Amino acid sequence: MSTVFKKTGGLTDTPFSYCPGCTHGIIHRLVAEVLEELGILDRSITIASVGCSVFAYDYFNTDALQSPHGRAPAVATGVKRMHPDKIVFTYQGDGDLASIGAAEIIHAANRNENITVIFVNNAIYGMTGGQMAPTTLYNQVTTTTPLGREAISGAPLKMSEMIATMEHIAYVERCMAADGPSIMKTKRAIRKAFECQMNNEGFSMIEVLSSCNIGWKLSPVESLNYIKNTMTQTFPLGVFRERKNETNH
User: Fold this and answer.
1) Does this model's pTM top 0.90?
2) Which of 137, 101, 104 is closest to 215 using CA atoms?
3) Does the pLDDT at position 249 exceed 60?
4) Is the dihedral of CA 246, 107, 164, 183 positive or negative?
């Protein structure tokens, strides 16, 4: 009998703590599969953020460090510069990366640090009660915007577009985890981002539109449709920066 499905060696046996319907677990598996398939699992280092992914170091079968809130790119910078032979990646949510960590991600990208960033965007603060995040959509209802986000709170931050203005970085793409085809496309993007680091091309970031059905107060199926039909209107999918055959800076 042939094997149809098996657990990747890139994940530990620790059960996920994520809410039923959350797509963090899917994204974890994609990252873990890529590390295993590229043969870099044994030299990879996870930099965990603060937020729903705070326990990422329990799930990835790699060496790992826990960073203060928003500081994962700074910690990753230090680790990569001390151990340039290692594969270093951060795993961050939008509240972590786009809010308190906005300075760290911008300057790590601007320095073209040879790290990989996995940026999970569910447009809300999931762990702390469903508050408005920098990426919350206009008119989106959260616990701190019960009538929907208004312009007085600013516009949803488009981090991929912002980071991609730095022409010297290696790769930026926005994907989603909403159905089979989009999940496989996300895996290909994650693989390309790690290959950039392996080839010493510099900074890469994969933004993945993800669900928070508990915070959104939607069913899991409704949440996946929300990603495809609503989130992508504000956060269009695609490659925003891909530097090819250029001299590294």
Assistant:
1) yes
2) 137
3) no
4) positive
